Amino acid sequence: MLLALLLACRPAWLVVSDLHGDKAFITNAATGHIAGEVDVDGTWTDDCRVSDDLHRFCLVYQSRGRALSDGTPEIDLTFTPVGSGDESDGDTFLDLGGRLAGVAFPDGYGKDPQIRWQLDHLDFSQIDPEQRVCVRDPDDPCEPAAGQTVDQVRQCQLYWPHEFQVLAEDDDSVQIAVADTRNHRVVWVDVPLQTAPSRTVPASGTCGVVTGIVGGTSDPAVPGGSPDWDIYTSVNGMALWEDDAGRHLYLSIKDTQGDEAQQAGDGHGKILHWSDAGGWHQEWEFPPQSTTSASFVNSPHGMAFDDDHVYFAHSLGLSDTFNDGAGGSFGVLDRDGNYLYDLVIPRYDVLYARDITPLGDGRFAFVDSGTKGDEHAPADTRLWLGTLPDDPSSSGLSGVWTSDHVNQEFRDVGRVVSPTYKDAWVMYSAEVAEAP
Question: What is the pLDDT of residues 62-86, one digit of tens each?
Fold first, then answer.
């Protein structure tokens, strides 16, 4: 009877991305069983293939399933081509920016993929000159000007984007918001639809028009900075919504930078709420900055919210070292940014928490990638289904991460469904999708 009730629940499916491969898989949200795989190898350019002198691969950060207006299933995903050169050039690490693509399946998931849209160039011409973050070629708004440094050129493109949301679509374009992770910002982009869907992403990609920016830098001498952005870098997670007051962003910030007094660094993370009521500004920061001690969470990634709570994958919430070691949890805040508790999976050790996704029926998907990002994945990347604990009250603690965890309270996830394993994959995100 219980299984029948679960199977009747909506949404019934999750799309789960493989960080180090070229696949997404569809899993039953009631049982955790894998229902099928979507091989999107044909969508990649040569940037993601192995050649005689170069090993390259693509980091697939997020895949989202949605149904188009005619019912056609589509998987939208963000990926970054990376790799290393051969020995002759010192095994040079290559950074090839980042891309997003919308892959439709007119005949059903996994069958005859068609690229409807893709993005790898940005046009900042509609942004106020004082807020622009890059210098463009005067003859081509989609290309950076010549003679710039690598760091300057990166500001003109996506740089390891981790998450995104499709906001709207019309006959000509799709409107998205992107967590442009290593450019330390969120950008709103209007991306043209391809006139003729194709099976592969073209080598010279599509240029999208940037319509808004949050973040980037807090240095007033650098164009494009947002007031209050302060020490934040590496925007890993993003959740966006609107109400009568305007647009809102919840953000997970993995790293911070600052002077010695601010005690920032890699893995020194924050959870933020920003809104555009009266101009983009910060509503709250968790944990709040302290002038006397470090006040951070440890390497947060995916995040979500519902009517009562904000959730984040506290990737190394149980580790004893910032940005290193193993031991993850899932943080729970109220909507005002006050700490309630951390969640752990009973009888299992979470190695590196990557994502937490509400399923809309009182249950959640919890993703453990098993690794911080090594190219070769361990065999214990896992996904669990479960509920919040029976006791929803606040722990009364601050939630600030320390190596002895005295400021955190760990509570067991309830009614856990046995984990879904996938050997040789690194699960990164789990997103609700319509049934295939």
Answer: 888 888 989 898 888 888 776 554 4
Query: Could you tell me if 328 and 360 are in contact, meaning their C-beta atoms sit under 8 angstroms apart?
Result: no
Q: Which domain holds residue 131?
A: 40-183+185-228
User: Are both 428 and 390 inside the same structural domain?
Assistant: yes
Q: Please report which residue ranges of 31-159 form alpha helices under DSSP H.
A: 150-154
Contacts of 2 (CB under 8 A, 6+ apart): none
Buried-exposed string 255-293: b where 16+ CB fall within 10 A, e elsewhere: bbbbeeebbbeebbbbbbbbbeeeebebeebbbebeeee
Is residue 39 over pLDDT 70?
A: no
Provide the residue count of the chain. 436
Residues 210 and 331 reside in one and the same domain: no
Residues 179 and 262 in one domain: no
Could you give the count of Cα atoms lying within 13 Å of 304 in the half-sphere of its Cβ? 19
Output phi, psi for 331, to 5 deg: -80, 145
Are residues 279 and 162 located together in one domain of the fold? no
Count up the domains in the chain and report the number: 2
Read off the tokens for 44: 């990649």
Output the pTM of the full model.
Answer: 0.90
User: Is there a cis peptide before residue 141, judged by omega within 30 degrees of 0?
Assistant: no
Cα(167)–Cα(394) distance, integer angstroms: 33
